[in-house]
Design goal:
It contains no helices and eleven strands. By secondary structure, the chain is mostly beta strands. The radius of gyration is 13 Å and the shape is globular. The N and C termini lie far apart (40 Å).
Length: 128
């Protein structure tokens, strides 16, 4: 059974950093695309960053490009999202999702309904 568990959220001041973790169980990362999505109150869930099943390709939404980095550790079966230079508009619940490994996206990270499994989310709040 596929399971994803996010952690690492919290309260941080503007300009600060956080690293989110997405621990996977029941499958190996090289069989799935992993995407980080976020959802702010009253807004739709949007893809922030994703990494291909091979681990060789990554995509980012324009608003985080150059500030966020997605990586994965196959030995730990975990995907990370390093978030630097955080802004108040980055405040949201962050989720990781798994999509079929045969998929990839020409830009950004596709739609939420293209992902099969989701974690419970972790809250990120950027505020002074």
């Amino acid at each position: 059974q596929l399971r994803l568990v996010e952690s690492g959220g919290g309260l941080v001041q503007p300009g600060g950093s956080l690293r989110l973790s997405c621990a996977a169980s029941g499958f190996t990362l090289d069989d799935y695309v992993i995407g980080w999505f976020r959802q702010a109150p009253g807004k739709e869930r949007e893809g922030v960053a994703c990494i291909s099943s091979s681990g060789r390709s990554t995509n980012y939404i324009d608003s985080v490009n150059g500030r966020f980095t997605i990586t994965r550790d196959d030995a730990k079966n975990t995907v990370y999202l390093q978030m630097n230079k955080l802004k108040p508009e980055d405040t949201a619940v962050y989720y990781c999702g798994a999509a079929a490994g045969s998929m990839w996206f020409t830009s950004e990270c596709g739609r939420p309904n293209e992902y099969n499994s989701w974690g419970q989310g972790t809250q990120v709040t950027v505020s002074s």
